[in-house]
């Protein structure tokens, strides 16, 4: 009788990939460590998770991880955080998913709360620190421009999607609410790309009609330009603002910018300068980039506002995995839903472009030396395009701060 054992089939080997036995505290600490090392944005964060939990420890088969990542990229929310929640559920059920997600986001949350607290207590206007932040703001514009280009490359892959993005940008400039713009973009693309051009045209016509009816009172881009200040926000309003951002982060954290800005800067709860400072600070922290919502919430409503907006921003990232754990992969197979979401994502790209233009105009109006700010922008943009590294964003922000402190003080 032969003593040679035949190897198990490849499919059986894949099925053996399972998380190790961990206690709830051990699981939390494991993902807390991931959160402490989560520098460099989503690409670096996902690569870290893949290397340790897929390649080295085999918590999940590689092909299943790839499919799961594809699902997370279709859904709104920070992909790396959603992956942590999903893998936590795989290890210890839904409570494990909750602990994994909290562990991953906690380091960035604590650091951003500390920075926001310091920001509101340090002298900034007319100081060296203020000049450094002016430089950072010019660098942040470059970072967002590069991010919009990268997002657009992945989203705008056919003429209909380009048309949706351009139409959304035009509607935003006219002050039309994104509640009209984005569903219309999604529906028009879903219908048009399946050959139902007449229905797509009807959807667009209805959207234009609704826009005309709500022209005067819609909360669109024009509202931000008025500078009117509303009463201090209720905690529920900040939670809702964060939730809208969390539900509309298609293609990356930067897609939440126009919605969060509209609900805070547009109501006079903070300035564009403060908003850009928050984006800059988020770029140097080990956290999903949507952590800038914590800063925005602090400036708008203190500690309670920061926690409320953070909860709203991250709630979808928890909910999709916790509630739909067994059904997420079905999203990949749902073609009509994918088409609708693709149209919405294209509309979001158009809204971001308008927001970047508004932010650049505001920054240019505030700087004491437009040439220096333009130089910071140009250098930062060149680095972002030429240097493919997770350190690129922190480096350009540091360069902007240094040049601003020297030349803009």
UniProtKB/TrEMBL annotation:
Keywords: Cell membrane, Membrane, Transmembrane, Transmembrane helix
Cell compartment(s), UniProt: Cell membrane
Entry's transmembrane regions: 98-120, 126-148, 160-191, 197-216, 237-260, 280-299, 306-325, 337-357, 369-385, 391-408
Signal peptide feature range: none
InterPro entries in the record: Chr_Tranpt_l_chain, Chromate_transpt
Membrane-topology descriptor: Multi-pass membrane protein
GO MF, one annotated term: chromate transmembrane transporter activity
Major subcellular location class: membrane
Highest taxon, organism lineage: Bacteria
Any one Gene Ontology cellular component term annotated for this protein: plasma membrane
Protein family per UniProt: Belongs to the chromate ion transporter (CHR) (TC 2.A.51) family.
The name this protein goes by in its record: Chromate efflux transporter
Annotated organism of origin: Sphingomonas zeae
Organism taxonomic ancestry: Bacteria, Pseudomonadati, Pseudomonadota, Alphaproteobacteria, Sphingomonadales
Gene (name only): chrA
């Amino acid at each position: 009788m032969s003593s040679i054992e035949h190897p198990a089939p490849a499919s059986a080997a894949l099925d053996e990939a399972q998380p190790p036995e961990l206690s709830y505290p051990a699981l939390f600490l494991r993902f807390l460590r991931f959160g402490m090392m989560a520098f460099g944005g989503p690409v670096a964060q996902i690569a870290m998770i893949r290397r340790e939990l897929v390649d080295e420890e085999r918590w999940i088969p590689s092909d299943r991880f790839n499919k799961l990542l594809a699902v997370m990229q279709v859904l709104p929310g920070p992909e790396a955080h959603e992956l942590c929640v999903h893998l936590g559920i795989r290890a210890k059920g839904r409570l494990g998913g909750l602990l994994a997600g909290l562990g991953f986001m906690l380091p960035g949350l604590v650091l951003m709360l500390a920075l926001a607290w310091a920001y509101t207590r340090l002298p900034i206007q007319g100081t060296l620190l203020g000049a450094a932040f002016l430089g950072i703001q010019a660098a942040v514009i470059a970072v967002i421009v590069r991010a919009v280009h990268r997002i657009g490359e992945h989203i705008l892959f056919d003429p209909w999607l380009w048309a949706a993005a351009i139409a959304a940008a035009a509607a935003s400039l006219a002050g039309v609410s994104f509640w009209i713009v984005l569903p219309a973009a999604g529906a028009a693309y879903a219908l048009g790309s399946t050959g139902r051009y007449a229905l797509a045209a009807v959807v667009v016509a209805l959207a234009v009609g609704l826009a005309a009816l709500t022209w005067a009172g819609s909360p669109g881009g024009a509202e931000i330009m008025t500078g009117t200040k509303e009463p201090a926000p209720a905690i529920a309003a900040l939670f809702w603002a964060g939730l809208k951002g969390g539900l509309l982060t298609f293609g990356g954290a930067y897609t939440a910018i126009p919605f969060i800005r509209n609900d805070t800067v547009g109501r006079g709860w903070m300035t564009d300068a403060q908003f850009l400072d928050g984006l800059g600070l988020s770029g140097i922290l080990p956290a999903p980039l949507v952590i800038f919502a914590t800063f925005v919430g602090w400036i708008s409503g203190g500690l309670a506002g920061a926690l409320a907006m953070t909860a709203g921003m991250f709630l979808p990232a928890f909910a999709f995995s916790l509630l739909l754990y067994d059904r997420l992969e079905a999203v990949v197979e749902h073609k009509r839903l994918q088409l609708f979401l693709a149209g919405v994502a294209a509309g979001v790209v158009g809204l971001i472009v308008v927001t970047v233009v508004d932010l650049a105009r505001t920054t240019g109006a505030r700087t004491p030396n437009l040439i220096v700010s333009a130089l910071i922008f140009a250098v930062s943009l060149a680095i972002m395009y030429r240097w493919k590294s997770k350190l690129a964003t922190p480096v350009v922000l540091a360069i902007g701060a240094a040049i601003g402190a020297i030349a803009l003080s």
